[in-house]
């Protein structure tokens, strides 16, 4: 895959912890699955709709894959056979290139910070 910027959806509490600690080991689902779930730009809206429906106070974090160990990132089949980026390591704050509150465009898609 060639997407360099991918996204992680966090709760406000997860974002606060991430900022305070300087790294993110994953949400409870990430920890249970053994990797941090990420989405590319075309997948973010579907991920929010499917896994975060009805939740308020979400934060969208843009991650530059070029700032991560390439061996720790795998593009693996998931929803509908799409390849999703999965991080098999802790996410360092230094790989985050933008953060914003999760918001929607007029068409319902998620606004991306980058």
From TrEMBL:
InterPro entries, per the entry: DUF952
Q: Which organism is it from?
A: Komagataeibacter melaceti
Q: Where does the UniProt annotation place the signal sequence?
A: none
Membrane spanning segments where?
none
Cite a single Pfam family from the UniProt record.
Answer: DUF952
Q: Please, which domain of life does this record's source organism belong to?
A: Bacteria
Q: What is this protein called?
A: DUF952 domain-containing protein
């Amino acid at each position: 895959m060639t997407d360099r910027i991918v996204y992680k959806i966090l709760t406000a509490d997860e974002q606060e912890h991430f900022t305070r600690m300087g790294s993110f080991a994953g949400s409870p689902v990430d920890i249970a699955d053994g990797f941090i779930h990420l989405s590319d730009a075309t997948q973010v809206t579907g991920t929010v709709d499917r896994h975060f429906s009805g939740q308020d106070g979400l934060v969208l974090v843009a991650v530059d894959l070029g700032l991560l160990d390439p061996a720790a990132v795998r593009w693996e089949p998931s929803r509908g056979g799409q390849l999703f980026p999965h991080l098999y390591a802790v996410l360092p704050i230094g790989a985050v290139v933008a953060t914003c509150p999760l918001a929607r465009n007029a068409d319902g898609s998620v606004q991306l910070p980058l």
